[in-house]
Amino acid sequence: MSMPANSLPQGAAASTPDGPRRALILPGGGLRLSYAAGALSEIFARGLTFQHMDATSGGALNLAMLFSGLGIEEICRRWRTLRMRDTFSPMPLANYLLPSRFVAASASKSFRKKVYPHLGIDFERIRAVEGIQGTFNLCDFSTKTNRVVSHREMTEDFLVAGMSLPATLPPVEVDGVHYLDSGFIQDANLMEAVRRGASELWLIWVMGNVPHYRSGPLNAYVQMLEMSANSALIKEMQHIREINERIARGEQPYGHRQPIRLHLIKPRHPLPLDLALYTGAITHDELIEMGRADARDYFASMTPEGVPLEPETLKMTAQNPGLQFKETMAGGFALGVGEAAEGQARGKRQNQRLVMHAQVRIDDMTAFVRDPEHRGQLTGSIDFAPLGMGMEATTGVFNLFKPTDDPSMTFMVYELGFQHEGKDYYLAGRKEVRNGSIFRLWPETTTLYTRLHEGTDASAPVIGAGTLSLGVADLMRLLSTVRITEANGLSARLKTLCSFFTFFARSLWDTYVRHTRKSATPVNGLSENPVKGSQE
């Protein structure tokens, strides 16, 4: 959805606040900036507004969309529908055949003719925005310095130049000066925000920062960028720490009387590189959900003081091989009942179905198998006509063969929290896997008994119930979505896949053939009584 032509961009402060002046800082990260769009949706959902917005490298795409009048959900939609093949256009043949003629891997024509129009970028609207400061960063190649361009000066040439990393896109000449992406100089301009009076900085950082050195030509290039960008950001953070020390001594650098705080949203592990978007190993939809999840995690643990202004703040951990898949379950569901069987029956009579579109992510397969509760991450959406369609989950819980207080039974747990029309809801479902006949394997592992709670967790009042199921065709679709993540080489991918299916098959064997009694564990967050009611 676009804003009216003369309205402020979403997230812009309509007036000077009584509290701190805020700046939103959007660094680069290739075309993975859909992650930042997901994080922005959580920031804006909490009502945060900003007097200054600054962007570098690919972050300029999100800022340009905001200043073009697009709301954040529309921005996410446009990222989801961006065709990666539209981001490439060939250079002249000599560029590839003659090393001495090589300039860049791709021309910028595709961005100008396809990507910018698809993303809804409108330069006239960008330049016309009033009531907020917008700044874009470019590398002036003639002086090897960073140039800050106001949104009122913004042009297509400047936007292309600002995301033209050396060897990826050609430099852009404007008034006799060649401009490039500033990523190798600095990828986040914190001090520009400080100089403009901001004392609360919000930074969405996606540049990888792990201690081990990776091999391969692509990693070699990326690591050069990571070293430059992270070291420049660390220097900016140290500068701000020195400013805060001066403020504590009674000075007023740049007019500041209160210490400057930094709030940082970043992934725990480095995001997959752009190549993964081109090969389909990851999608913009998945990156958006990752950004949302990391932003929610930050808000859950943040303090008013923000993050420490230390190099360790930027560190990430290497991600181990994992697995992800999508699963869709549907079935009769009704409001006003508390037991699954009754809700299923009433839902069928009233022709009411609830559909859960779930995506399960296991980031570390070895840790997942060793974990007694076998926890993964769950995201997704819910379709239920009496409430709404496509309701995006804001929280999720997933367990596979989770022990219970009954040593003969384990749960497969699927729980999604979401909001609708300002209210919190929590859909809590579980598959009940009991020791018994092998003929119970299929119905028990494909039937999800669910309750809908009005609140933020499974302790809230129950307002609906039903039974969702997975059919044979659904299972085939599930298997087609299984993907191995962060595994280098065919051998590592096969090992990860075998590890998961061995664990899954062994758990089924122990339940339906050996009838192994599991270690009893108190049920946490679930009703002590089975939710399926009269189906017992």
From TrEMBL:
Residues 1-20 are annotated as: Disordered. Residues 24-195 form the PNPLA domain. One of its GO terms (biological process) is lipid catabolic process. Keywords: FAD, Flavoprotein, Hydrolase, Lipid degradation, Lipid metabolism, Oxidoreductase. It holds the Pfam family Patatin. The active site is at S57 (nucleophile), D181 (proton acceptor). InterPro entries: Acyl_Trfase/lysoPLipase (IPR016035), Cholesterol_Oxidase (IPR052542), PNPLA_dom (IPR002641). Its cofactor is FAD. It comes from the Bacteria. GO terms for molecular function: hydrolase activity; oxidoreductase activity. The keyword Oxidoreductase applies. Belongs to the GMC oxidoreductase family. PANTHER family: CHOLESTEROL OXIDASE, FAD-DEPENDENT OXIDOREDUCTASE 2 FAD BINDING DOMAIN-CONTAINING PROTEIN. This is Patatin-like phospholipase. It comes from Azotobacter beijerinckii. The lineage of its organism: Bacteria, Pseudomonadati, Pseudomonadota, Gammaproteobacteria, Pseudomonadales.
